[in-house]
Amino acid sequence: MTRKYEATIVLDTKGKEQSIEELVGQISKTLETSGARLEQVDQMGKREFPFSPRHVTHGYFVNVKFEAEPTVLDTVSAKLKLNDNVYQQYYQRCD
User: Fold this and answer.
1) In the predicted model, is pLDDT for residue 45 greater than 80?
2) What is the pLDDT of residues 71-85, one digit of tens each?
3) Boundaries of every domain in the chain
């Protein structure tokens, strides 16, 4: 049974040579290869954090709406944790 989810992924672009489009493309590809069907990918832009956790002052926010099996979230989360460009990730089920 597939469910709809919304993910907010924060990218750490500090010192990276790749463009934002390439980084967002990598995330989209990771989601699709894990079994998610993408509905919408919104690039929300660069935002500054109110405080500096781990000496990172800003991040590039990406909002992704997708449909997937519940077990796909664990797979996607594990794969994106290994990606050095992903700073934080949040998932929410949409009804």
Assistant:
1) yes
2) 999 999 999 999 999
3) 3-94
Whether the Cβ atoms of residue 11 and residue 56 lie closer than 8 Å to each other:
no
CA distance 2 to 74: 14
User: Whole-prediction pTM value?
Assistant: 0.89
Query: Under 8 Å CB-to-CB from 74, ≥6 apart: which residues?
Result: none
Two structure tokens written together for 16:
């990276």
Q: What is the DSSP letter of 51?
A: S
Judged by DSSP in three states, 88 sits in strand
Residue 15, both tokens: 């010192």
Class of domain 3-94: alpha beta
d(CA 19, CA 33): 21
